[in-house]
Amino acid sequence: MPSIGVLLGKSPHKDSADDVAEWKGLLTRREILQRDSYREQGREPPRLASDLILLRYLRQAARVWTRAGSKEGRLYPDIRFEALDSHALKAQSPARILAAFDRFDIILLLTTTFMYESRTRRAYADFYAVLQKTRAWVYPSPQYLRFLFDKSRYMKRLRSAGIPIIPTEFWTGRSRRKHATADWDSARSELRSYGKTWRTSRLVLKGSHSAGKAMMMECDLDRSGAWPDLRDWLDFVFLDLDMPGVLIQPYLEAFAAGQEIRTYWIREEFAYALVTGQFPEHQPTEIKTVDGRIHPIIKALLPLGRRILSLLPDDGARPKILVRIDFVMPVHPQTPAPHPSSAPHPWLVNEIEMLEACLFPDWTSYDVIQELGEALLDACLRQGTRT
User: Fold this and answer.
1) Which of 129, 197, 260, 355 has the most crowded Cβ, counting Cβ within 10 A?
2) Topology classification of domain 151-164+254-354
3) How far apart are CA 357 and CA 306, in angstroms?
4) CA nearest 363: which of 288, 296, 301?
5) Interior angle at CA 136, CA 131 and CA 142, nearest 5
6) What confidence tens digit (pLDDT) does each residue in 65-93 have?
């Protein structure tokens, strides 16, 4: 009987009966969404609630498929799912993590957040080594994780392929990191030149290995006190964390105005799209069809999204199970951001997310939990028949 370890990003709080019940898969999807719904509570639900919902769906669907005996003409063996707590694992040595993974035939990584929290280059290297050594089949594949986990790597790949990305300067490599910390006057002059080129004093700096606002700094070079803060941040990123690189971009008002478009692709087919911005001022809004026809925004982004998918490495399952591609309109900092309904507009790629991407299942009419769950289960069952 194939066994599947599912790495989760949310662990139960011992003093919360609801969290423990959710962890054990005792709550229904509707109950979870109702409890976490920020429409009612006025706050964003836990970012990784979707992984728990997915685990419960996988358990239920596997039982149904097993009882049926076949699906699409294939016979499936009984399978067993077990939750793995990433917060507990990150405190363990690489040898202990490897031993934990080796107990399973398949490892599903529904989160890699603990890698962001560990932050140091050694933590990344240790985790990749575990993924490459384990006897289990890992999804997503280590090669895919390595590619998308490094923003500088995939953004350079997109730019070299002619994909429009947010204007970006890359400070990567040992000499570049040394220059940014040891020759501060030169580094400051370089940052000034970027702002002049982009016609803004507001810059965004991101660690090459980071998620969301983690390891990101927004700064106004004209603000008093900005330069000491920026120097401290670069020293922390390059010297303390030994981060491989930093990405430097102009600040775009489109983000604050709620003009980022998150497109979700399941099995390399477009699934749904959400307009997002800074919460709670801009709650996610689904981009739907107009008069039964495809929305002009989606029509403009579909060819670009398909080109991007073709540039990504193999994720271990064909077709790729989940990719989220985020786009933003290149609004000049001094120009009000137009509303997305006035598409088409030129679009720039902001970032790409993989399996861990926040799904916002209660903000879309697309049944993402079922569709994504079936794709994951099918990939596991295909692999399980080989074990």
Assistant:
1) 355
2) D-amino Acid Aminotransferase; Chain A, domain 1 (3.30.470)
3) 18
4) 288
5) 30
6) 555 554 454 455 577 888 888 877 877 88
